[in-house]
Every structure is written in C-alpha cells, then in structure tokens.
Amino acid sequence: MSKSKNSSGQKNSLRDHPPGSGQVPTEAVLGAGGELHQNVSAKIADDDGAAFLTDNFGHRISDNQNSLKAGERGPTLLEDFVLREKIFHFDHERIPERIVHARGSGAHGVFECTKAIPGLTKASIFQKAGGTCPVFVRFSTVAGGAGSIDTPRDVRGFAVKLYTDTGNWDLVGNNIPVFFIQDAIKFPDLVHSVKMEADRGYPQAASAHDTFWDFIGLMPESMHTIMWAMSDRAIPRSLRMMEGFGVHTFRFVNEKGEGKFVKFHWKPVLGIQSTIWDEAVKIAGADPDFHRRDLFEAIDAGDFPAWDLGVQLFDEAFAAKQPYDVLDATKLIPEEDLPVEIIGRMTLNRNVDNFFAETEQAAFLPTNIIPGIDFTNDPLLQGRLFSYLDTQKSRLGTTNFHQIPINAPKCPFHNFQRDGMMQTLVPTGRANYEPNSLVEAGEDGGPRASPETGFTTFTANDERNDPGQKLRIRAELFADHYSQPRLFYRSQTDNEQAHIASALVFELSKVTLDHVRARVVSRLRNIDEGLAKRVAEGLAIDLPEKAKAARAPIDMAPSDALSIQKRAKDMLKGRKVGILFADGSDKAAIDALKAAIEKAGGTAFLVAPKVGGIKVKGGTLKADGQLAGSPSVLFDAVASILMPDAAAKLAKDGAAVQWFMDAYGHCKTIGHCSGSQILIDKANVQPDEGVVPVEDFMKTGVKRHWAREPHVRDLA
Ligand code: HDD
User: In this predicted model, which residue has the larger pLDDT, 510 or 714?
Assistant: First the structure.
C-alpha cells in the first residue's frame, strides 16, 4: 500500500487497498499518523487465528447472538449499541440500482497492446506492443432490474474500464454496434418505454409489450437496432461469446495534433454464439444466473475469456463519401468496406472478491478519456457525456465516488476538488486553490495544469465537423433509417432471417394495440418486403401500407460479418457437454468421453437421476448435477451412456424425455449409445447428421445442426 503523499498533500491511501484482504485499509485502522496506539492489546486475533469481531469503531464484541435486555424476558435496551449499529447498517445496505443496465456481472483482467500505433494516437497504451494495463469489465442486460434473469432478449452492455498510466479510459459499449436513437434527448423516452409499464409494474426484463413497441413504431430511426435486437445477437450463449462495440465514432489524435476517426470493436476469441429463443426461455427457469455463473466459473477454472481489440480507422474524406453519416449512432461501417485492424487483446483473469464493492459500485463514464482519444459530435455521445457523471451521484450518493477503489485511477491523481460527503482523503496544507504562490513561502503549492501532456480537445477546422452554429436539428443523412436495417437483414442466413421474423412475431403478439402492430409491420416493408409479409402472416393481420420513408433506402452490399452463423467457430473450447448416465452405465466409456472433451478444451458435466455414488459398470460414479436440475438447455451438446433397463426406467421420467427432446429441438449434437434408444424414440429424436453414435461424438463436434431446424420448429 502506498502511503506516499501526492503533490497536493492528499493521501490516496484507500484506492491502493489491495482487493480481497477483507480488511479495513490499514490507514483507517491506524491513527492519522499511521501509528497503532500501544495501550490497545497488540493481539488482533484469537488463538485460532480468526480476527476478533468488532463494531465499526473497533470495539470488540463479546456476544453476537443475544441483544441486551432488561431482565431475562424483558424488552431490549436502547443502550445496546452493538445491536443498533448492526441493524442500522443492515437497514441501509441497498443503494439505488442503475436506471438501466442494473443486472450485470464483472471481472478484472489485463489489456495488452499487440500493435503499436504511435502515428495514429498519442494514447500511452498504444505506444508500444507488449504494453499492458489493468482492466475491469462489466457486462449487463439493459431493461431488467438487478435481480432479473440473465437470458432475456435484450441488448447486452459491454463496459470496459482501462486503468492506464494517463488515467482511466472507459469504453462503455454494447454487444450491438448501433443504437435505438440518434439523439440523447430521446434516451429517457426510450428507457421509459422499454422498462416495466408505469401503471402495472410489468413485464420485467422484456421488450415484448405495448409501450416499447408503441415508441419503436413511432421512431423509424430505431429500425436498424431493432433488426439486431430481434436477431440471435440479443440472446447470447455466454458473455464470453459476444462481440463488443464502442458504437460511436471516436477520434484518435497523434502527437502532431492530427485526428483520425475510429470505431472500436471487441472480438471474442471463443467466437460469437447465441442461444435459440426457446432455449433462452427455458434457461431463465433452469438457471437465472446462467451468464453470471458461466463467466465466474470459467475464470475460476483458469479458462480466461479474451477479446481482441479492433479498430476501424478512417478520415473525413472517407466519411464524406459514405451514404450514411458517421456521427449517426444508428449506423455502422461494414467491415467489408473498412476492415477491422487488431491492435490489442483483453483477457479477464480474476473474479471480483466482493460483488457489491466492485461490480455494483463500478461507475463507468464515457467522459473518462485519455490524451490521444477524443469524442466526436455524435449527438448521442454528447448527451452521454453529461448523463453518466450525473447518475453516479444519485446511485453512489456522493461526488467522491471516484475514491471507491474500483473507480479510482491506478495512476496518481491530484487536484483542488475538496470535501463533499464521504471524503476519505486527508489533504494537508493550505493549497486548495489555484493559482497560488505558496511555493514562494516554502509551502506545498499543489498540482499545476500540464499544457504539453494534458488532455486537449481536438479541433477539426472543417465546416462539417466544427460547424459553429447552434441549431436544434439533425444532419441530412440521419434521415436514412432503412438502408442499414435492410443491409443487416439481407446479410443473414435463411434461418437467421427466420429467427428475426419469429422474434418479431413473438414480440408483436404480446402487443395488445392493433395500430402499434400494424405500424411496426408497415416500417418492416421498407426493410424487406419478404420480412414484412412473414411477420404479417405470423400475426394473422393484413399487410399494412408501407410507411413513408423520410429518405429512400439504398441497397448496400450484404456483409458476412453481420451474421453469427456465417462466422461461427466450430470449437469445443469454452463449451459444455452434458453426459447422461444411470445405474449400470459403462464407466470406462464415460471417462473416455469426458477426457476427450476436456482435451479439446471443453467441459464435461455428468448428469444422473441421483447425484451421489451411482453403481456403474467398473465402480461407482458421482454426478455433477441431478437430472431434474440439469436440463439439456444448460449444455451446448449432450451424450448419453445408458443400459437399456436404466433407459427404460428413465423413459417414464418427463425430465429425461425432455432432456433429449430439447437437445434435439435446439439443434444440438446428440451422441447416444444403443442402450439409450428407447429414450431417443420416446423423445421423438429423428436420425440426422447431428444425432450420432456416442463413439462419433467428438468427430461430429459441438455445433448447431441448423438443417434440422425446419423439422423441429415452424419458422415464421
Ligand atoms: Fe448508457 C449505463 C451503454 C446510451 C445513460 N450504458 C450504461 C451501461 C452501458 C451503457 C454498458 C452500463 C455501465 C455499467 O456496467 O455500469 N449507453 C450505452 C451505449 C449507448 C448508451 C452503448 C449508446 C451508444 N446511455 C446512453 C444514453 C444515455 C445513457 C444516450 C443518456 C443520455 N447509461 C446511461 C446512464 C447509465 C448507463 C443512465 C445507468 C447507470 C450508469 O449510467 O452508470 O447514465
């Protein structure tokens, strides 16, 4: 722990407190001068090494089971400060949850620059290949409350805090590269409409309801993000298998003060993968913490998730030539037009020690930017620059939230901001204003601005990017609301398109207002006539008239990078296989399959009707999970090794039949032995390239067998 004074005389002791020690920072325990009063017993733990239980002011507690009473059966006394402090603190444990992105999971890690780009940016982290800095990442859903499920159809937050040596850089992005609205002034309306409805208080964590679709239907600029939100991107398989995007166009600025536009991408090393809607719904019941658990367990097991940081770089000449405005957050730049260059890698390698202290108290600020990176005039970004700082005061209760260890920079920080609620630093000296000439009197004068190395705002010096006038308008190309939704839809595979259509039918079926449904479908006609027709048929409504487009859409060349399936990685690493066994199963075969899965980087999870030692051929075997509590939706593929009589018994058990029925319905690989046949038949599993003898399981691999989908589901 650093006890060093900074140049303003502040001691930044709390922020250096090592996480996980479970102790109050030493300097809070020690006296102001750092010395322990020697008249207190030097012994701080009992003979077993357990620390003495104390109240918050260090008084040792003699009895943590009984409150202080007036007589054996009398009332509790007000004098009982031990009881009062404990209940008082407990009563105030909760803080307001985030107004959006309340449900989230975080982890620590490291970012490493893999390609130096000093010519493009002076950002210190990109000066040298091999340079690293610590990071904290928080993934989230948007609409649901803090205790809601992990797998609703929703955008996922992807917020990264890089603790660089020139200050914190927060890249507060999503797993979708575009946003619902173009101007921050619409954000409160968007959020009000998607959250539970104001009078009835439901639905929780769902966009499938009147007010959301009412707003969307009236907001054609949302159509591009709606395509993404209705696609499988919005139901990810794992937080480790999502892309992340900075969404806005930012700027890189080099030493010479030259600027380049930049868009940031995080590419998951495990590839992108999603669930199927039916599966996502069932996972919500089977394991509401599916994503949080998956992230925690992977990191705990040393299977560290990683993402490559990519950039799309361009100049004003490129921007001016595009048929969309690069300052419009509802637009992306197809990777085929402008490739993503990889410049770094982020690896998450440490779980938080305390969820509240770290994940819940983490405060991300798009204004946390470092010299070498700058904002642009994107009107959505501009509004965010106010909102995030503001919201932390309401959530964390004090302007000093930057002193909470997870939020504090890891480089020194000094300024003349003083006091405020919950001030934990103890600045010394008189210098709390600037300019001052206290140095001339031999005193500490405090910090000074650094014109050379400090943050300076980029000046574009051109009419398009520094127009100067103040107007409540939007630039002309912002009026094209349909070209990119059309690009997105037309870049999908057939069954990805079917998923989008089904999602729209599902969501709009929950809408009770006919005119809202019709309006949304009328918008879809500008995206793709086929899609609009499918959705209208799925809703059993007449195809409404096409909505008038503020600007006629154009046809952009389809982009494979927008499809999950066209870029799918067929790999076992990071994936989980459920192996079903029961009495009499062949242990050697189970062990061999498990070893092969683990060798390929996957996880094998043994499932049986009972978890304790089951008698199998070759010994006894414990299961990792009980069948009823381990439905096949929790796995990426399944295998079964069963004796015929055990399978016959299981065929009477709904959980066992459903296990295969779901795995088949969710297009997963099913490896089975001849003994399991009765169960396979009962579950109506039909032979196809993904239903294989268990010996061929590894050869077949863990992937979705999409060709099966039309046989198991009526695709809209
Ligand atoms: Fe936001 C949280 C991402 C637009 C206002 N936002 C929040 C988080 C993420 C995003 C990932 C969670 C951070 C965390 O884990 O603590 N938000 C985005 C993206 C946007 C976006 C990618 C568009 C490109 N947001 C946006 C606008 C506004 C906000 C236009 C307001 C004008 N966002 C907030 C907020 C939150 C927030 C209310 C809630 C909690 C917080 O900030 O710290 O201020």
Answer: 510
Give the lowest-confidence range in 111-125, 275-289, 465-479, 553-567.
Answer: 465-479
Select from 178, 195, 225, 388 the residue to mutate for testing ligand 1; criterion: most ligand atoms less than 8 Å from CB.
388
Which two structure tokens, joined as six digits, stand for 77? 């006394």
In percent, the amount of the chain with pLDDT more than 90 equals 88
What local confidence, expressed as pLDDT, does residue 36 receive? 52
CA of 100 from ligand 1 middle (Å) equals: 7
Residue 24 pLDDT: 38
Please report the beta strands in 151-272, taking only residues with DSSP state E, as ranges in sequence order.
156-164, 167-174, 244-245, 250-253, 259-268
Determine the distance separating the centroid of ligand 1 and the alpha carbon of 99, expressed in angstroms: 9
For ligand 1, say whether the CB of 578 is within 6 Å of any of its atoms.
no
104 lines ligand 1 (CB under 6 A): yes
How many whole angstroms separate alpha carbon 116 and alpha carbon 153? 38
How far apart (Å, rounded) are the C-alpha atoms in residues 467 and 459?
A: 11
Query: What's the CA-to-centroid distance between 380 and ligand 1, angstroms?
Result: 11
Distance, CA of 70 to CA of 91 (rounded, Å): 24
CA distance 174 to 704: 25
Task: Give the nearest ligand 1 atom to 173 CA.
Answer: 22
Residue 387 CA, closest ligand 1 atom number: 44
Q: Distance between CA atoms of 151 and 294, rounded to whole angstroms?
A: 12
pTM over 0.95: no
Q: Which two tokens stand for residue 393?
A: 């005061």
Tell me the C-alpha to C-alpha distance, in Å, between residue 13 and each of 57, 79, 428. Answer: 19, 34, 14
Known binding residues for heme are 98, 138, 187, 384, 388, 395
Does the CB atom of residue 171 touch ligand 1 within 6 A?
no
SS3 60: strand
Q: Which residues are catalytic?
A: 101, 174
What ipTM is given for this predicted complex? 0.99
**Ligand 1 atom having least distance to the Cα of 390:** 44
Count of Cβ atoms closer than 10 Å to residue 277 Cβ: 19
Q: Is the dihedral of CA 696, 698, 699, 705 positive or negative?
A: positive
Q: Is 187 in the pocket of ligand 1 (CB under 6 A)?
A: yes
Nearest atom in ligand 1 to the alpha carbon of residue 99 is 39
* In contact, 365 and 170? CB cutoff 8 Å: yes
Contacts of 278 (CB under 8 A, 6+ apart): 662, 665, 666, 713
Q: What is the mean pLDDT of residues 689-708?
A: 95
Does the structure show a pLDDT above 70 at 550? yes
* Predicted pLDDT of residue 17: 36
Let me know if 622 is exposed, middle or buried by CB neighbors in 10 A (0-12, 13-18, 19+): exposed
11 lines ligand 1 (CB under 6 A): no
Please tell me if the CB atom of residue 98 comes closer than 6 angstroms to any atom of ligand 1.
yes
Separation of 285 CA from ligand 1 center, angstroms? 28
Rounded to whole angstroms, what are the CA distances from 611 to 187, 453, 608, 629? 49, 62, 6, 11
Taking the centre of ligand 1 as the mean of its atom positions, its distance from the CA of residue 189, in whole angstroms, is 14
| Dist CA 231 CA 489 (whole Å) | 9
Nearest CA to ligand 1 atom 3: 173
3-class SS of residue 528: coil
Contact at 8 Å (CB) between 480 and 511? no
Is the shortest distance between the CB of 103 and ligand 1 below 6 Å?
A: no
Which structural domains are found in the chain, ordered by start?
A: 1-25+414-445 (no CATH), 41-93 (4.10.91.20), 104-185+218-403 (2.40.180.10), 482-566 (1.20.1370.20), 570-712 (3.40.50.880)
